[in-house]
Write a structure and sequence with these properties.
Layout: H1 3-10, H2 14-21, H3 29-41, H4 44-48, E1 57-62, H5 68-83, E2 87-92, H6 97-108, E3 114-118, H7 119-122, H8 127-134, E4 141-144, E5 156-161, H9 163-176, E6 182-186, H10 191-206, E7 216-218, H11 222-234, E8 241-244, H12 247-259, E9 269-273, H13 278-281, E10 287-290, H14 293-308, E11 316-319, E12 322-324
Helix pairs in contact: 1-2, 1-3, 5-14, 9-10, 11-12
């Protein structure tokens, strides 16, 4: 018998069984007694050797490992965890809510020590979806770049960067200098994109302006970027600034705009969120926002291991990002 059988016999979710096993006080007495009786009758604990925090493995959950930033995070986390005596399991799935919920339930049913969820990519634009997912967590966990003050779960801690307020301040400065047409390009909707959009919209609200919907666009690759820039040119809507969610998109935008005889940065400034060697390889070199992946990962490890060892750790830790000035901005 496994945890799925226990849940089925008790008429509860896998997460509820996990809560009972881990002595979570949120389970009602009647439900706890019912689940515990089934566990004891079937000798489940002894048979499965289910003991909390015994295998020294941390699960890193994300929705893809293709980006340079994600690869860096995996490297940092794996190295730091190894030095601290932990192994790392990488768990990837698409952004489908059911797929993520099933994957989370699966790992909660195992005897892992803790979970790290990359909020930037794993969490979605839907607050309700995120809350439904995070409230099920029953072991020490840290969310990277995602925070919900209405999720009442003592197992969760958060390590965030300040990208939303940082972008807000940059946008305010551009608007103050009469560079009000800020084009934002991103590869897919995510919680990280939501944070950047929040910063942009706050800046426009502060200036008493409405953000132009034509200046926010999903572009999956270079052909999408070129097509959309052509659309804006046809509408005679030339951006003052192009802000990109990735270095690749910023490089695409720079190449395409220069082919159309726009000077970077004299005519149009370009900057991106995230920093990699791409920023220095293109001409002009790209100004970027360093989102401090290593600092974030180091903090995540310290918080999570502290949480596992039942030490007092901050619920929220904030890491400040940094603007790396290069040739693509004035």
């Amino acid at each position: 018998m496994n945890i799925y059988d226990i849940a089925d016999k008790a008429g509860v979710s896998i997460a509820t069984v996990s809560r009972v096993i881990n002595n979570d006080k949120k389970v009602s007495k009647s439900t706890r007694n019912r689940v515990q009786k089934i566990i004891e009758d079937n000798n489940f604990i002894k048979k499965s050797d289910y003991s909390r925090h015994t295998n020294n493995t941390i699960v890193y959950m994300c929705s893809g490992t293709g980006s340079g930033d994600m690869a860096d995070k995996i490297t940092y986390l794996s190295d730091a965890l190894y030095k601290s005596g932990y192994k790392t399991a990488i768990a990837c799935c698409n952004q489908d809510e059911t797929a993520k919920k099933n994957m989370l339930e699966r790992y909660l049913s195992e005897n892992f020590s803790g979970i790290i969820i990359d909020g930037h990519d794993f969490l979605t634009y839907s607050i309700e979806e995120n809350i439904n997912l995070l409230k099920e967590i029953t072991i020490p966990s840290v969310i990277i770049n995602g925070y919900f003050d209405n999720v009442d779960n003592v197992n969760l801690c958060y390590v965030n960067n300040n990208i939303s307020s940082f972008i807000e301040n940059i946008a305010k400065e551009y608007i103050r200098k009469e560079k009000k047409k800020i084009l934002f390009l991103f590869e897919r909707m995510s919680f990280g994109v939501k944070n950047i959009l929040t910063g942009l919209h706050n800046a426009y609200d502060f200036a008493g302006m409405d953000a132009d919907p034509d200046f926010t666009q999903l572009c999956r690759d270079m052909s999408y970027v070129e097509k959309y820039i052509n659309t804006l040119i046809d509408k005679e809507k030339i951006p003052d600034v192009v802000l990109c969610k990735s270095e690749k998109l910023a490089a695409y935008a720079s190449i395409i705009l220069q082919k159309k005889n726009y000077k970077i940065p004299e005519d149009i400034e370009i900057l991106c969120v995230g920093d990699s060697e791409i920023c220095s390889l293109v001409k002009p070199q790209l100004t970027s926002v360093d989102i401090k992946s290593k600092e974030i990962c180091d903090t995540v490890i310290n918080v999570l291991i502290g949480k596992i060892n039942k030490k007092t750790v901050p619920v929220i830790s904030i890491i400040n990002v940094e603007l790396l000035k290069r040739e693509s901005t004035l």
